Amino acid sequence: MDARVENWLNSARYDLAAARDMLAAGRFVYTVFFAHLAVEKALKARVQEQTGRTPPRIHDLIVLLKRARLDPPSELRDFLGKLAGSSTATRYPADLEEVVRAYPREVAEAYLRQAEEAVEWIARQLKP
pTM here? Predict the structure, then answer.
C-alpha cells in the first residue's frame, strides 16, 4: 500500500480511538465528531489511491464518496448520509445544548459502531 494512503488510513483509525475515548469520557458530541473525521480520512485514503493526489480539504462525505469511486452497500450509504449531516452541527454548534441533546450516549454509540464498520469496509476496498 502506498505510504500516503496508509497514512490516511492510520489517521482514520487513530480518530476512531479518539471517538472511543470521547464516548468513555461522556463527550458524545465529540464521539460523533471524531467518528465523522475517521470516515472522512478513510475516504481520503481511497481518493489518494484513486487519483494519486492529495485529497481536497473538504469535509463532505458524499462528495468524497463520489471522488473515491466507491459504491457501498445501501445500509452503509444511508449511514454516510446521516453522518454527513452531523458535520456542521458538531463542528460549529449554533446552540451547544441543542447539539448535546441531539447526540445522547445511545446515538453516539450507534454512530461510533457504524463508523468503525465504515472505516473497515473502506479499508477492505484499498489495494494491499
Answer: 0.95
